[in-house]
Amino acid sequence: MVLVLIALLAGVVIGLVLSKLIFKPKCVGTINVDNSTDTPYLFLELNEPLSISILQSKRVTLEVHIKNYVSQD
After folding, report:
1. Is residue 71 one of the residues assigned to a domain?
2. How many domains are there within the chain?
3. Which of 26, 35, 36 is nearest to 63 (CA)?
4. pTM for the whole thing?
5. pLDDT means over runs of 10, the chain (73 residues)
6. What is the pLDDT of residue 72?
7. Which end of the chain has less Cβ packing within 10 Å, N or C?
8. Is 8 inside any structural domain?
9. What distance in Å separates the CA atoms of residue 38 and residue 58, rounded to the nearest whole number?
């Protein structure tokens, strides 16, 4: 009985890890935030050219990088 519960728990954990890896949203690019001035500027950089699949998607995943591109000296 104990072995069955351990096997069941191991199966659930392995299933959760695999589903997290398989269904992880693909990042299509980055948003760079320039905070070197009073008003932040946003720059969009895509990993690949715009495609129909990106344009038809309701949601996309982007990484956010916050940097100061111009020094205040």
Report:
1. yes
2. 1
3. 26
4. 0.57
5. 93 94 87 88 89 85 86 60
6. 58
7. C
8. no
9. 32
